[in-house]
Amino acid sequence: MPHPKTERTLVVVKPDGIQRALIGEIMKRYERIGLKLVALKMFVPTEKMIEDHYLLDPQWKKNVGEKAIASYEKKGETPPSSDPTEVGNLVVERLKKYMTSGPVIAMVWEGAHAVELVRKITGGTEPRSASVGTIRGDFVLDSYQMADTADRAIRNLIHASGSTADAIKEIPHWFSEGEIVKYNVPHEATLYDVDIMKGILG
Ligand code: GDP
Ligand code: MG
Q1: pLDDT, one tens digit for every residue, the chain (202 residues)
Q2: Using CA positions, which residue lies closest to atom 27 of ligand 1?
Q3: 116: which DSSP letter?
């Protein structure tokens, strides 16, 4: 079993995150809990890159469609289709426009429970209902209601891998192995080493 500190997750600061000048704020939040940045790049993604990214998990389209249909029904509105896959296709089209509208910053963060902790810090998909204290809850206000009415993707600043299985597929989609840097930082000893307390007082 590899040490839990080797877990990695993909984070993408979406175009609105860059436009809102939140790059430093976002990175600070992952960095300060002890995760380590091991890859980073800025570019404007292509539509194909985005479509392929969201289709890496064969279940995602159906799941996102079901989620969207439930959100229409909660508002007492009729969804654009009752077929989750069709609604999922609509979300993919909206995401292609959103995610290619400007530069994004893609990052890989490494550390124990990286996937789960990054999702916790990032917050729920809809900023309107995301918890206070999370990035999506503290720095933006978009809602399913506004996004669906305007036929666009929810603007929520960040993509973060949803599971370790997703992260394992997403990281090689965005980075070659050579772009991921292996290095140590001294605070890893305090976070992970069993014997660290022996060395502190000499
Ligand atoms: P995430 O993992 O929290 O980013 O959420 P998902 O993987 O379910 O969806 C991916 C992205 O699609 C979200 O971050 C939103 O930008 C967008 N999105 C998801 N569901 C909806 C929806 O029902 N309506 C709209 N307009 N956008 C959505
Ligand atoms: Mg997701």
Answers
A1: 899 999 999 999 999 999 999 999 999 999 999 999 999 999 999 999 999 999 999 999 999 999 999 988 888 888 889 999 999 999 999 999 999 999 999 999 999 999 999 999 999 999 999 999 999 999 999 999 899 889 999 999 999 999 999 999 999 999 999 999 999 999 999 999 888 777 778 7
A2: 153
A3: H
Whole-structure pTM value:
0.96
Does the C-beta of 118 come closer than 6 Å to ligand 1?
no
What's the longest Cα–Cα distance across the chain? 68
Identify the CATH homologous superfamily for domain 4-201. Nucleoside diphosphate kinase-like domain (3.30.70.141)
Q: Exactly one of 3, 113, 159, 187 is catalytic; which is it?
A: 159
Is the dihedral angle over the CA atoms 155, 159, 160, 165 positive or is it negative? positive
**Whose CA is closest to 57, among 164, 155, 151, 179?**
164
3-state DSSP percent of the chain in helix, strand and coil, to 5:
50, 10, 40
CB atoms within 10 A of CB 37: 17
